[in-house]
Amino acid sequence: MLFVVVLLTAGLNTYAQQEDEMISDSVVVQATDSITSVVVEKAKKLRPKRDWNTWKPNPQRALWLAMVLPGAGQIYNRKFWKLPIIYGGFMGCIYALTWNNMMYKDYSQAYLDLMDDDPGTCSYNKFLHLGKQIQTKADEERYKKIFKSRKDKYRRWRDMSFFVMLGVYAFSVIDAYVDAELSQFDISKDLSLTVEPTVMPNHNGGDWLDSQSLGVSCKLNF
Questions:
Q1: Which CA distances in Å does 29 have to 43, 44, 88, 90?
Q2: Where are the alpha helices (DSSP H) in the chain?
Q3: For residues 161 and 91, what is the distance between their CA atoms, to the nearest angstrom?
């Protein structure tokens, strides 16, 4: 009987210790959660919200963003209306570059086929008018000049399209930097033009009254 009582007492003590440990762990967890929530709330209060009305972009950051990705500088400057202009310029240049390169290759191949003596190479026939054939030597020489002139023309236009695309890229970078720089240009709100009468000295006069003249002065405050 005494042995049973001792076992029950030991079991009750162990259960009480485990319950105390669970209670202490829950208290620690609750305390940690409360501290974390307090820290988060304080951080939210300490970090002010960005006022987009008074925010000014950094010119250096706008420059690097525009150099890495065209249009990113305009997005950073919040000038979204410029994006269709920039990307429209890029798309137009890419289309012109692709089209002129394709035409240059076609006319260059037609010119080469016309220059050789192989009758199997006749890609130039697709550039001839409705079933026309090159039969005489004079026609051959005339079409050689035409194909050479056209392939040179499309090559120039292809190269020009590439340089124009570089110009659009340079324009996007310069625009992003200048726009960010001008956003920090300080212009006083006290911009006014005043017109008032004034007394101007006239050194040609003899006495004091004759040496003074009445006039109007303009003052520009900025």
A1: 21, 23, 58, 58
A2: 2-46, 59-68, 72-76, 83-115, 137-183
A3: 11
Provide the 8-state DSSP code for 71.
T
pTM, 2 dp? 0.60
Query: Is residue 211 within 8 Å of 203, Cβ to Cβ?
Result: yes
Are the beta carbons of 90 and 154 closer than 8 angstroms?
A: no
- How far, in whole angstroms, is CA 85 from its chain's centroid? 11
CA–CA distance, 100 with 103 (Å, rounded to integer): 5
The tokens of 91 are what? 């798309």
Instruction: Express each pLDDT in 56-74 by its tens digit.
Output: 889 999 999 999 999 999 9
User: What percent of the chain is modeled with pLDDT above 70?
Assistant: 56
CA distances from residue 134 to 105, 113, 128, 175 in whole angstroms, order as listed:
21, 13, 9, 54
